[in-house]
Amino acid sequence: MERTPDGRYVVIDGRRWRATDPAVPEDVAARLRRALMAARRDVGTALRHGDPDAEREARARVHRAKTALGERGTPWWEQDDDARRARWEAGLDPD
User: Going edge to edge, which strands form the sheet with 2-3?
Assistant: First the structure.
């Protein structure tokens, strides 16, 4: 996967996407990626079943995981170490 020289973005099919925060420990990142993929599958299921409430809940889980990974919200390179840790720990907490 190609990254920009500053490491802040990955380039996929010519489009830049914010990279996962490299400070997230690998075991935590793996848990968050599993949660993200499960939430994405649930979005698809909700869409196929025409269930807007389930879709809304699944999309909220996608957003939560992507934020915890540092791919959304305040850019990880603008946060101090404590804020970064609080961000990914919040993503691990169940609602």
Answer: 2-3, 9-12, 15-18
